[in-house]
Design a protein that fits this description.
The chain has a single domain, classed as TATA-Binding Protein. Helices cover 12% and strands 32% of the residues. The chain is built from 2 helices and 10 strands; from the N terminus they run E-H-E-E-E-E-E-E-E-E-H-E. It has helices at residues 27-38, 123-129, and strands at residues 16-23, 43-44, 49-52, 55-57, 59-64, 69-75, 82-84, 95-97, 110-116, 135-141. The chain is globular.
């Protein structure tokens, strides 16, 4: 007989800062702009974040050794779209579903996740992000109010 081990939700330390960004530019362009604006060094991960079947999210990371922070830039929309079958008037037309990383914030285009030992305010970071061209809005998200915060564990 084998033992079954389950990981308790208290095992994961969810002390991170999450900034939501609204922008119309592509993921590589937002990473480039963040590198220029924040003097960062975001690089595309070797493997994108795979949440589920047909749910693959582009992901960029940066290990800031000077401030001892780990940054992750991830798109809220998947690059894989799932084809939905219709049995109605438009059954011959293709209908696509775009999976979201955080479904309750479906209008957000990108998330900037920052992990550090001592959490500091995000006001200066948001102020710098808002100076970027093509970024319409940026704000801090209260992760305690998110239903799908487990999707942000990477």
């Amino acid at each position: 007989m084998t033992a079954i081990h389950k990981i308790d939700d208290d095992f994961y330390d969810d002390s991170f800062l999450l900034i939501a960004m609204h922008s119309t530019i592509a993921d590589y362009a937002i990473a480039y702009e963040l590198n220029a604006t924040l003097k960062a060094n975001f690089k595309r991960t070797k493997k994108d974040f795979d949440l589920a079947e047909n749910s693959i999210f582009p992901c960029y990371e940066w290990q800031d050794t000077f401030h001892d922070r780990y940054w992750v830039l991830v798109a809220n929309h998947s690059i894989e779209q799932e084809l939905l079958a219709n049995n109605d008037l438009f059954q011959n037309e293709a209908t696509y579903n775009v999976p979201r990383l955080v479904p309750e914030l479906k209008d957000v285009d990108y998330f900037l996740k920052m992990e550090e030992d001592e959490m500091q305010g995000s006001d200066a970071i948001i102020k710098n992000i808002l100076t970027m061209p093509k970024v319409m809005a940026a704000y801090e998200v209260d992760i305690d109010k998110l239903k799908s915060k487990n999707n942000l564990i990477f």
